[in-house]
Amino acid sequence: MASKKKRIPIPTELAAEVLFRSDRTCCVCRKPGKPVQIHHIDDNPGNNDPRNLSVLCFDCHRETQISGGFDRKLDADQGTLYRNDWHQIVLETRAKSATAKEESLDLRVDLELVTSLAEIYRDEESYWRLAMHYDAIQNIELRDKYIDLALQQQDTDDETHIFLRAMQGRADLIPLDVIKRERERLADNPLQLARLHKHLGEYGEAAAAYVRGVVDRLSTGNTFAAAFYLKELYKDGLVEELFKLALKDAIQRKDIYWQSRALEELGWRSELRELLLKHASEIRESDDLFLQEKLAWAEDDSRAYVDLHKEIARRYSDG
Q1: How many distinct structural domains can be found in the chain?
Q2: In a domain, 88, yes or no
């Protein structure tokens, strides 16, 4: 007789996260308001890996315990699919709700804030803040006016000078001596140096400096700072810029596959389709099933796409 698997209590913080991600709603029946509990997908109560946990109502959980499949013949893989699909729905619903609330608030306060903040900054002759203010509301004419005024002020330091020109997308107007001084000042501060590289359009160097700084923060236990700068790296579009650099490199090497991968990651579908159709003959003559599958997509040949996908699965399966 098989020994009963030992139950390990789910840590409080993990249980809270699992329930939150599922909106405290059963991922199978998805009926709101029903009492729920956390279910171990593989039926091992000792496996508290987040990937093994889902939220079920008592009815669905009781059915899986009694009948081994919710009376719906769902195995562990299918249970995982139900869980993941429900998590995605919850994320999208929350995003829409948050956006609606933010838009409502914006309509009420935007006009007052725009005028009031502009008056405050103007009274203080804080022209760099005025430039940021008008950049945020996409008033380019006023932004550039106050950038010029800020750069005429004697107390505008090199860091602000670079920041304002980068805001304009005019790093070419930054004096070389200003850049040199900032490079020297930030040489031992990788995260601030990362921002300098970013402002100057040196995206590969910026990413490398961000990574060095994040690793340093993690090594000292400062996980908040590590997360903050990783978020900044992504939010400021550095990931996209790296894919652009990868695309440029693949073009120089005339590597069709890596051009296609970079275009996929960038989401440039029309450019991807154009690339594949341009090299259709070359792709067909190659032994590259992955490129051939992409070409079938570009040609809207569903039969060939399915056949190639199955062939790839057979060829590269572990079995």
Answers
A1: 3
A2: yes
